[in-house]
Amino acid sequence: MDTGIDVIAESAAPFPPFGLFAGIHLLFEQQEERFSRFRPGSQLSRLNAGETIEDPFFAAACRLALEAHAFTGGLFNPLILGALQQAGYGVTFGAVSGGEPRPTHVPSPAECLVVEGTRVSLHGAQLDLGGIVKGWTVDLAAEMAANAGFAALVNAGGDLRATGTEHGAANGWFVQVDGPTDEPAWEGEVVGGLATSTTLKRAWRTSDGGRAHHLIDPRTGLPADSPFVQVSAWAPETWRAERWAKAVLGGGHAAAGAARAAGVPVLAIAPAGAVLVAP
């Protein structure tokens, strides 16, 4: 997932929860082994090479992706991998260089992605589940902590899930969201999921000297052109918040209105740091 993972857990136990931390570490590694597009032997890479995958975790992730495609009105589409690679992001981010973004047709997952029980097949497209799986794995890790009796905050690269209440808080965990110039943009207590996405960090120069970033607009197949450079979204589950954050970041004011109509508060920030949409 190419990101740092922080886990904070609180309980009345007199010793650190080493078993919990080890279990969460193993969970993230197992998910990476299934879903990384940079590991040739991963289930995702095998699916993209034409193999049918039979695995309950993989099928569950694909169902989440189909659901997210529906509730974002297509602003999230897990079949943008070809366009993303064309833009230059075909290797791990530290090695990204060049790329030639151009308008690309991104097919509907309803036409290409088939999930039957625990079996998944793909036809005529390339699948990328990186973002949605990261959020989902944060959810699984936080639920693991809660089931073990811990209040916990799990953070994977800005995708957060808070369970229980930390010591000294009224309800939840205190979180501060920094804006694009590192100034505090929002702070408060969080229960559930909070995800923040930006076009400023995973960005690079293309072969012709232009600028590209990792957020592909499935309507054009190009890096999204949006009035926002950073969006945060709140939802009961982190995977859902993460999908809305990226949908609004790519879809602009209309997508922010759709998120709020769906009961998802958003914080959307312009390049100079001005808050254009407040939760």
How would you explain this protein's 3D organization?
This protein has 279 residues and is α+β, with helices and mostly antiparallel strands. Helix content is 33%, strand content 25%. The protein contains 7 helices and 16 strands. The strands form 5 sheets. The protein has a 7-stranded antiparallel sheet, covered by helices on one side. It has a 3-stranded antiparallel sheet with strand order 2-4-3. The protein has a two-stranded antiparallel sheet with strand order 7-8. Helix 1 packs antiparallel against helix 6 (130-147) and helix 6 (130-147) crosses helix 7 (238-261). The model has no long low-confidence stretch (mean pLDDT 95).
Helix-strand layout with pairing:
Layout: E1 5-10, H1 18-35, H2 43-48, E2 53-54, H3 56-71, H4 81-86, H5 109-112, E3 113-116, E4 119-122, H6 130-147, E5 151-156, E6 159-163, E7 173-178, E8 184-190, E9 192-198, E10 203-205, E11 211-213, E12 216-217, E13 222-223, E14 230-235, H7 238-261, E15 266-269, E16 275-277
Antiparallel strand pairs: 1-5, 2-4, 3-4, 5-6, 6-9, 7-8, 9-14, 10-11, 12-13, 14-15, 15-16
Helix pairs in contact: 1-6, 6-7
Summarize the structure.
This protein has 279 residues and is an alpha+beta fold. The protein is built from 7 helices and 16 strands.
Number of helices: 7
- Secondary-structure element order, as H and E? EHHEHHHEEHEEEEEEEEEEHEE
C-alpha Rg, in Å? 19 Å
Q: Tell me the strand percentage band.
A: 25-35%
Q: Percent range for helical residues?
A: 25-40%
Overall body shape: globular
Sheet with most strands: 7 strands, antiparallel
Distance between the termini: 28 Å
In the sheet with the most strands, the strands line up as: 1-5-6-9-14-15-16
Low-confidence stretches: none
Output mean pLDDT.
95
Helix-strand makeup class: alpha+beta
Quaternary organisation: single chain
Number of extended strands: 16
